[in-house]
Amino acid sequence: MRRGKIRVIGWLRVYSSGMQARLAFSLATCVRPEVLIVDEVLSVGDSYFQHKSFDRIRRFKEEGTTILFVSHGMETVKEICNRVILLDKGQVLKDGLPDEVVDYYNALIAERENAKLTIEQRRERGGWLLTRSGTGEVRVARLSLVDAETGEEVATARVRQTLCLIAEVEIVEPIPKLVLGYMLRDKLGHVVWGTNTWHTRQVLEGLKPGDRVIYRLPFTCTLGPGSYSFSPALVSTDTHLVNNYEWTDNALVFDVINTNYPFFIGSSWLDAQFQISIQEKVTT
C-alpha cells in the first residue's frame, strides 16, 4: 500500500497545473454533487475538454445542483450564472443579474483608468440592460438603424435586408484622436460581431468643441431570427482603457425575422444550399 501511494503521488508531480485541474474537475463531477465549486478550471485544457465541461455543468444546473462559479471569463459567467457577485479586495461591489454585474464590471475597469468617469444603468424595452459609462468629452447624440434603400428607420429587420447604422456624434471638448467601435450582441449577450475605426484605419484627429461627426455603417442583415443590440464605444485607441469618452451597452435594440428564406436556426444566415445526387446501383 505504501509503495502504491508513493507511485500515485509521483505521477501527479509530473502533471502540469492544467492537467491537475482537469483531473480534479473530472473526479469532482464523476457523480452529480449537491454543491459544485468551479474556480477558473474551465480556462485550462483544449476546446474538447472545455465544451465537455460546460455541458456537464449545464446538465448539473438543470438537475438542481448549486453551482458556485468563480471566473474572469465574463461571457461564460453570463451564460452559466443566474446571480453574480462582484468582489474587490473582499468587498461586495455589485450583486445582481448577470448582465447588470458583467456590464458594470466592464465599465468599472475603465473607471480606474479614467478618474471622472460615470456609470449609469437602467432596463429598456424587452428587458435589455442599458449601461452607459464615460468621461463625457464626446457623446452619441443619435443612433439609428435604417433601411439602406428607403432611409426609413427599422425596428424589425428581415433576413438579408440591406441596412445602415447611423451614429451622430457630438464633440464637447477638444479631442486629439477619436475612434468609434461597435459590438453586435444577441439576447444572451454573446458577441456576434464587432470592430472599430482603429482597426479599419479611420481614426479622426484634431476635433473641436461643436464639431459633429456622422458615421454610417451599411451592411447586409445576415443574422438569424431573434433580438439583437448594438453597443457603440467612443474612445481614442483600440481599447476603452486609455480614454473612455462614452460606452453604451445595448444602446440600440432591434429584432430580425425571416420572411423570404427556408427555415433555419442560429444567429447567422448562410448562403448554403443542399446539392443532392443519387447514384443508382448498376446491375450486371
Number of helices: 5
Main β-sheet, in a few words?
9 strands, mixed
Going by CATH, the architecture of the largest domain would be Distorted Sandwich
Compute the number of strand runs: 16
CATH level 3 topology of the largest domain: Coagulation Factor XIII, Chain A, domain 1
Give the end-to-end Cα distance, rounded to a whole number of Å: 69 Å
Shape assignment: globular
What is the H/E string? Answer: HHEHEHEEHEEEEEEEEEEEE
Question: How many separate domains make up the residues?
Answer: 2
What percentage of amino acids are in beta strands?
A: 35-45%
Q: How much helix, percentage-wise, in residues?
A: 10-25%
- The pLDDT mean sits at 87
Corresponding CATH superfamily of the largest domain: abc- transporter (atp binding component) like domain
The assigned structural class equals alpha+beta
Low-confidence residue ranges: 1-8
CATH class of the largest domain: Mainly Beta
What Rg, in angstroms, do the CA atoms define? 24 Å
Please explain how this structure is put together.
It comes from Methylomarinovum caldicuralii. Pfam families: Wzt_C. InterPro entries: Bact_Polysacc_Export_ATP-bd (IPR050683), P-loop_NTPase (IPR027417), Wzt_C (IPR029439). This protein folds into two domains: 2-71, no CATH class; 97-257, Coagulation Factor XIII, Chain A, domain 1 (Distorted Sandwich), CATH 2.70.50. Helix content is 21%, strand content 38%. It contains five helices and 16 strands. The chain has helices spanning 2-13, 17-28, 47-62, 74-80, 98-111; strands at residues 35-39, 66-70, 84-88, 91-96, 118-123, 129-134, 138-147, 156-158, 162-171, 175-186, 191-196, 204-207, 212-220, 226-235, 244-249, 252-257. The strands form four sheets. Strands 5, 6, 8, 10, 11, 12, 14, 15 and 16 form a nine-stranded mixed sheet that branches. Strand 5 and strand 6 (129-134) form a beta hairpin. The chain is globular.
